[in-house]
Write a structure and sequence with these properties.
The chain is mainly α. The protein is built from 7 helices and no strands. The protein has a domain of about 100 residues. α1 runs antiparallel to α2 and α3 packs antiparallel against α4. The chain is flat and about 95 Å long. Bound molecules: zinc ion. The site of zinc ion has 8 residues, from loops.
Length: about 230
């Protein structure tokens, strides 16, 4: 038996041509169904993500506990193992915590990860007696957090179909990042007494030009179209 439209050979008992979907009908043929020539679709077996996450959490917890116990046994107090514990906790918060959630929103997880890293910096600063957390790590980390968070929120909630808006946002982000370089040099000067050599003006210039270029591309539709055709972006 063959399909009337496309001529493909048909299995007995099929109701539609598998190629062109034409209904099969023949008055002389009795309907008797053969098993389908291909296996039924079955859901592929997946490894349970929760199980995997428990395993990864265990792999984080095990060295943490071992270090803590060894340190306590040798020194009686928490000395070097504190760094290991805080480091592992910060890494866990940054890398594994988001995986526990089905819908991962970077608007929420990025500040959480940055806070964990700042917590680690605070611990190291307190333990080493260095007073660099408040005058340096906190303002730099805070500025980086605010800048990146603003970019994530803007990119996520204002771009939508208007994809060229992403160019303004990225452009603005680059320029702000250049400003952050100047802030870093200034804070290094204030906190550690390093001389102001104005090296930060080089990254500022490069980032400013890059940001300006992106904004110009965003502003000029013909330029955007020609770039789109050339580079498929
Ligand atoms: Zn057909």
């Amino acid at each position: 038996m063959y399909c009337m439209r496309c001529g493909v050979e048909l299995q007995k008992g099929v109701e539609k041509c598998p190629l062109c979907s034409l209904r099969v009908w023949h008055p002389d043929l009795t309907e008797e169904k053969e098993p389908a020539p291909y296996p039924r679709y079955t859901e592929p077996e997946t490894v349970s993500q929760e199980g995997l996450l428990f395993l990864v959490s265990f792999l984080f917890a095990l060295p943490l506990l071992i270090c803590l116990l060894v340190d306590l046994r040798l020194n009686g107090v928490v000395t070097w193992s504190g760094y290991v514990c805080f480091g592992l906790l910060a890494a866990y918060v940054c890398l594994c915590l988001p995986l526990w959630f089905r819908r991962r929103n970077p608007v929420i997880f990025f500040p959480v990860a940055m806070t964990a890293l700042l917590g680690l910096a605070l611990y190291v600063s307190l333990k080493t007696g260095g007073r660099w957390f408040l005058p340096f790590a906190f303002p730099v980390g805070g500025a980086l957090l605010l800048l990146t968070e603003a970019m994530i929120v803007l990119l996520r909630y204002t771009v939508g179909e208007q994809r060229h808006r992403a160019l303004y946002i990225l452009g603005g982000g680059f320029i702000a990042l250049g400003g952050l370089c100047v802030l870093i040099e200034f804070l290094l000067h204030v906190a550690f007494g390093l001389p102001m050599l104005w090296w930060s003006l080089y990254p500022l210039t490069v980032l400013f030009l890059l940001g300006l270029l992106l904004s110009i591309i965003g502003l000029c539709p013909p330029l955007r179209r020609s770039l789109h055709k050339k580079f498929f972006i």
